[in-house]
Design goal:
The chain is α/β, with parallel strands linked by helices and about 1050 residues long. The protein has 48 helices and 19 strands. An 8-stranded mixed sheet has the order 10-9-8-17-14-11-13-12, sandwiched between helices. Strand 15 and strand 16 form a beta hairpin. Helix 2 packs across helix 3 and helix 4 packs antiparallel against helix 5. One of its GO terms (cellular component) is nucleus. Its EC number is 5.6.2.4. Belongs to the helicase family. SKI2 subfamily.
Length: about 1050
């Protein structure tokens, strides 16, 4: 947004009187008509005082109007006819000075004096300035104006009016260049940097204005009147001088950084091509004083200066994310391009949005969340501010598709991929591969940066991404790996013959009962570090997590209860509020000892509370599953692996490395330890595990055929990236599958796979063949059908695309709108059906509670009441019923109850399910409802679903009382926190955005200062996004069309 013009400040009576009674200029100034006239006015005596009035006529203080005899304008007008040339020269100084009141330095070397340019211009027109009076007495007039300007403008003019060396000699020839420099020096708000195009156009526009001014004899009256009127109408912006100077310095540094980033020079600006304010923010918000040596080396790589793609790999906790964030800020601020950051999980996306919103508010870019059901396709095209899109893998793919479809993929300057090794992990890996391949194929200006702690076959990835590779074996805290067999601990040693060397024996006295309860000596291992230090125990299953937490607390000394006792009681109280009075009995037993479990069986709110308590040191021990290692960052002094298994599968090297990577907290611990508990029977397997290399990363386009290969082929044709079989084959040669085709497609060649895939899509009615005849030559091309377009735009799995279409079509015949039950069935995700095992008594009870209209829905989908009743009573079923429909309807009952009660605890008890399962079902349903909405938007016959699904998606996303939804839109604010904020009077987004963090800390229980600041920043960011979107919409509506009939 453009800054408002600066208002003219009022002058005091005393100041006005002093100015009017200034003694006349000496003889040396009398040669200028302006000076003569000013002297004559000054010698007439003090004018009569006009009464003080705050009306509009008195907006210029003692200058009662534009036309009074003693007004500034009257003085100038009287001088104008006397000598037009001088008046014209003065007009070049005075209004220009006023207009430059909002100017900012864009280029560091733009120090040519405006005065010198004006004098040079006078010489060209034949006007000679007397040597005895370098600027003439017209300078007094300018000085009188300067007296009225804010000090921030005076500082600017002081810099502008100091000519650089040699500028006096070449003033005449450098007039236009100096004008360009000064005109491009607009002081913009540092929080709203405008695009390069706008920036570059300013100097051109201004130099043309200057030329036209020299041709036209514009009167000084018009110049002054226009300038003073515009300034007077503008509201006075109350901004401190310190803030103005800081913003000017920030904007100048961004301009310097822009030049530096485009330069191959090693010296790339104050802070890696970024303003020093970024360094200050890192210190304030993250506590980062200096970068590690490897981070500096990586950021100054020549390939990054040349905007080449990069893959970099370091151990967990090595500081990879900070490098990515600095590269992101360079792209947003210096290159003025949008950025996409792809992260593996929704929780990490929300954490990153939460963390980077503060930077966005301070530095003037937008942070937009693309996870679950959130995200706009295509994203809003911003005029001034640039956007950082933080997305999950699936939403990132949809975002890239929408940008390609609207020819905006070039707006994306940088794509950052965290956990790049996920390319090799199932359907999500296939989706990530498709996303990156499309970016590489369609945009030459977008560069890609990928990072991971666990990469092995880097050569294949380099070839796929056309990237350079950087790696370092660096950890800020040393990690020592140990193996425990019986009561002996061995250190992992790659130089040893069997991979291990003896370290020590456990020194812990076990009673006979304790030996039976804890045969793996877990209590001995954890009591060596807790409660002073933190500890994580990774367990194979969720149930094992709870058992380990309970067992440890059963045998811990009572002294552990006194450590931070009040804060533990507060945590229990929080968890009770989350569960509406209910709390897990295991957590109620373990939290007083500083112990808890962490797995997917907890609700989002419970997990958040436990994570925060562990980060603060209230909890010192977490028993968790492997998902924590790949999720949020919760490091520990010691990491214990309960067994070398994840569920029933033996541990992979990548998983092992991720788990032990949590050991050692930078800035807190001086060492980190990992201990893998091994049974004698697994000893040889573990030896192979610790000595083997990391697993290779292979393409999943073929194994995940419907979500991978077929989905890719469909979107290629739909986006018109490739419309013939040959073009499709050419694209696939540029994928990871194309790089690895000799390894992965041994039975069929890649061209045969393409042919089979396209034929399958044609059979399903998702693609069709077009024959184009030109010059007696026919060309076979591919086109997407309406159903195919709906499928790829909605990211619908092609294995159930036709089923979804049939059910939506059937729903139109008798859509029951008495409640949301029928609509919920259509939005229940297919991929959770196979894991559902209905409790038939609960099924029958829920069915009987439906209204008559709602019961007809069950008949429509093929699940009659008689079938449910026979199942509940254990009778034999003669007529077969589709089990997928039965299970899907049962899941719909859970969602329907959840929307009515908005309490996961009570619903999980009612259906005898874990809270985590119900939470996961809710999240999946919200995401799938969003996909079905995009699917329906492409099919005209489903117009009725659009409005209905929009509201349903919103309710599934938040699943709270309506009044809490605005608060839960803020990243990091979940239901429990939203309730606290609402009850404290923060009822809208505007309330949160304008809240004082210190007041929040005092008002909201268990809210740290850091969390309060992040909530306020996130709210401000969201409010800014919404305001920007509305402004864009307004400007689009008011934009005058260029093709109006009858206009040339």
């Amino acid at each position: 947004m453009a800054e408002p013009p600066l208002a003219v400040r009022r002058r005091s009576r005393l100041g006005a009187a002093r100015k009017r009674s200034r003694p006349p200029a000496g003889p040396s100034a009398a040669c200028s008509p302006l000076a003569v006239k000013r002297a004559s006015i000054g010698g007439e005596g003090t004018p009569a005082q006009s009464p003080c009035d705050d009306s509009e006529e008195d907006m210029f203080g003692d200058y009662s109007s534009f036309c009074e005899d003693d007004s500034l304008l009257a003085q100038a007008l009287a001088a104008e006819p006397a000598r037009p040339q001088d008046a014209e020269a003065a007009a070049g100084v005075v209004p220009e000075s006023l207009r430059l009141g909002t100017a900012q330095r864009e280029q560091e070397n733009c120090s040519a004096s405006e005065t010198a340019g004006t004098r040079g211009g006078d010489t060209e027109r034949g006007v000679q300035t007397p040597a005895s009076d370098p600027l003439g007495a017209s300078e007094e007039l300018a000085d009188s104006l300067f007296d009225e300007l804010p000090s921030s403008q005076l500082l600017y003019f002081a810099e502008m009016c100091q000519p650089s060396a040699g500028s006096e000699a070449s003033a005449g020839t450098e007039k236009v260049d100096a004008s360009k420099c000064s005109s491009s020096d607009k002081i913009r708000s540092a929080s709203s940097p405008c695009p390069d195009s706008e920036y570059k156009n300013r100097s051109t526009e201004f130099s043309s204005d200057l030329k036209s001014d020299s041709c036209k004899n514009t009167s000084l009256k018009d110049h002054l009147k226009n300038a003073l009127t515009e300034n007077a109408k503008a509201p006075t912006v109350k901004v401190s001088k310190t803030k103005q100077l800081k913003e000017a310095i920030l904007s100048e540094e961004i301009c310097v950084a822009r030049k530096a980033i485009g330069s191959p020079s090693v010296d790339i600006g104050p802070f890696y091509g970024l303003p020093s304010k970024v360094k200050d923010l890192l210190r304030q918000l993250r506590g980062i004083e200096t970068l590690y040596e490897w981070q500096h080396d990586c950021l100054t790589l020549e390939c990054l200066q040349q905007r080449k793609n990069l893959i970099y790999s370091l151990p967990t906790s090595g500081g990879k994310t900070l490098v990515a964030e600095i590269l992101i800020l360079q792209e947003l601020l210096c290159m003025q391009k949008d950025v996409l950051m792809i992260l593996p999980y929704v929780a990490i996306v929300q954490e990153k949005v939460w963390g980077l919103s503060s930077f966005g508010i301070e530095l003037g870019f937008l942070v937009e969340e693309y996870a679950g059901s959130k995200g706009r396709f295509p994203p809003i095209k911003r005029r001034c501010k640039k956007s950082l899109y933080i997305a999950t893998i699936e939403k990132g793919h949809m975002l890239v598709n929408s940008l390609i479809e609207t020819d905006r993929i070039g707006d994306l300057g940088l794509v950052v991929v965290d956990e790049l090794h996920m390319l090799g992990e199932g359907s999500r890996g296939a989706t990530l591969e498709m996303t990156l391949a499309k970016i590489l194929y369609t945009s030459k200006s977008t560069h890609i940066v990928g990072m991971s702690a666990t990469l092995n076959n880097v050569g294949d990835l380099q070839k796929f991404l056309r990237a350079e590779y950087y790696t370092k074996n660096f950890r800020p805290v040393e990690l020592k790996e140990y193996i425990k067999i019986r009561d002996t601990i061995y250190e992992v040693d790659s130089k040893a013959e069997n991979g291990f060397t003896f370290s020590r024996l456990l020194n812990f006295k076990y009673s006979s009962n304790l030996k039976k309860a804890d045969p793996d000596h877990i209590i001995a291992l954890v009591t060596e570090v807790i409660p002073k230090y933190s500890c994580l125990i990774f367990c194979p299953t969720k149930k094992n997590c709870e058992n380990v937490a309970s067992m440890v607390c059963k045998y811990l000394n009572k002294e552990f209860r006194s450590h931070r006792e009040k804060e533990k009681q507060d945590l229990i109280k929080d968890l009770k509020n989350i569960g509406n009075g209910s709390i897990c009995p295991v957590l109620k037993q373990t939290i007083p000892f500083g112990v808890a479990y962490h797995h997917s069986g907890l609700t989002n709110d419970e997990r958040k509370s436990i994570e925060e308590a562990y980060s603060r040191g209230v909890l010192c021990l977490l028993a968790c599953t492997a998902t924590l290692a790949a999720g949020v960052n919760l490091p520990a002094r010691r990491v214990i692996l309960r067994a070398p298994y994840v569920a029933s599968d033996f541990l992979k090297k990548n998983q092992y490395k991720q788990m032990i990577g949590r050991a050692g907290r930078a800035g807190i611990d001086n060492a980190g330890e990992s201990i893998l508990i091994v049974q004698e029977k697994d000893k040889h397997l573990v030896q192979d595990l610790v000595t083997s290399p990391l697993e290779n990363c292979y393409s999943n386009l073929l194994p995940e055929f419907t979500k991978g290969m077929q989905n890719l082929l469909l979107s290629l044709v739909g986006l018109k990236i490739a419309v013939t079989q040959e073009e499709v084959y050419d694209f696939l040669c540029h994928t990871l599958l194309g790089v690895q085709q000799q390894l992965l497609s041994k039975e069929k060649s890649l061209s045969e796979l393409v042919k089979d895939g396209l034929e399958s899509l044609i059979e399903k009615g998702l693609l069709r063949v077009k024959i184009m005849e030109k010059d007696q030559n026919s060309k076979i091309t591919l086109a997407i059908t309406r159903l195919g377009k709906a499928a790829y735009k909605g990211s619908i799995d092609l294995s159930y695309c036709n089923l979804l279409y049939k059910e939506l079509k059937k729903g139109l015949e008798g859509l029951v709108l008495e409640s949301s039950f029928h609509l919920l069935y259509l939005a229940t995700p297919y991929d959770m059906v196979s894991n559902c095992s209905p409790d038939w008594m609960i099924y029958l009870r829920q069915f009987t509670q439906l209204s008559a209209a709602e019961q007809t829905v069950a008949d429509m989908v093929g699940v009659p009441e008689s079938f449910i009743a026979k199942k509940a009573s254990g009778q034999a079923i003669r007529k077969s019923v589709d089990s997928a429909s039965v299970n899907r309807l049962y899941l719909t009952f859970i969602l329907y109850t959840l929307l009515k009660e908005t309490n996961i605890w009570s619903v999980s008890e009612k259906f005898n399910l874990s809270r985590g399962y119900v939470q996961n079902l809710l999240n999946s349903a919200a995401s799938f409802a969003s996909c079905v909405l995009h699917f329906c938007e492409e099919l005209e016959e489903f117009w009725v679903y659009k409005a209905l699904l929009t509201e349903l998606t919103k309710h599934l996303t938040y699943c709270v009382k309506t009044e809490l939804i605005p608060l839960m839109e803020v990243a990091g604010v979940l239901e429990a926190r939203a309730n606290q904020l609402y009850n404290a009077g923060y009822k809208t987004l505007a309330h949160l955005a304008n809240a004082n963090p210190e007041t929040l800390v005092k008002t909201i229980e268990h809210l740290s200062r850091r969390q309060a600041k992040q909530i306020v920043s996130s709210a401000k960011m969201l409010l800014t996004e919404k305001a920007e979107a509305l402004q864009e919409e307004v400007e689009l509506l008011l934009k005058v069309p260029t093709d109006i009939p009858g206009t040339s």
